[in-house]
Amino acid sequence: MRLTSKARYAVTAMTVLALREPGGRTSLAELGAEQGISLSYLEQLFAALRRARLVTGVRGPGGGYRLARPASGISVAAVVSAVDPAGGDGAADDDAAAQCLTHDLWSELSGQLYTLLDGITLETLAADPAIIAALEEDVRESAGPGG
To answer: One GO CC term of this entry (predicted)?
Structure first.
């Protein structure tokens, strides 16, 4: 498992949804404006999250996305795996000999990272005051002056 920009954006978006639970829906356009993520990129991420059954979509006026199950039942590792299933073990691809020598190290580190992230839920992130403050700041900045 490796942490890519795609994984970071997905975890951020899912944390926003967790903060808006229970039952709150968020449109991708709103989420993109708040977090500075392009709509097309969010559509790709949410397609993967929907396939992994981590979010559900509601069409029409007042529609948007919400978590498919409680935030306490969705780990950060599940989100990362959903959007980057072939995340690999983090080993370098440029030198096959060096990769063979360090493959076991990267595989072990990857496993430990997965275990760590599997123990962190969206509920945990949504309850963290620093994360709440950062997300609120993002929303204020996206509103612009006087917003």
So the answer is: cytosol
> In the chain, where are the structural domains located?
5-88+121-143
Number of Cβ atoms within 10 Å of the Cβ of 81: 20
| Greatest pairwise CA separation for the chain in angstroms | 58
pTM over 0.90: no
Question: How do beta strands 64-67 and 55-58 pair?
Answer: antiparallel
Per the CB < 8 A criterion, the answer to whether 78 and 11 are in contact is no
Q: Which residues pair with 58 in a beta bridge?
A: 64
Query: Does CATH number 1.10.10.10 belong to domain 5-88+121-143?
Result: yes
Sign, CA dihedral 52-37-14-122, equals positive
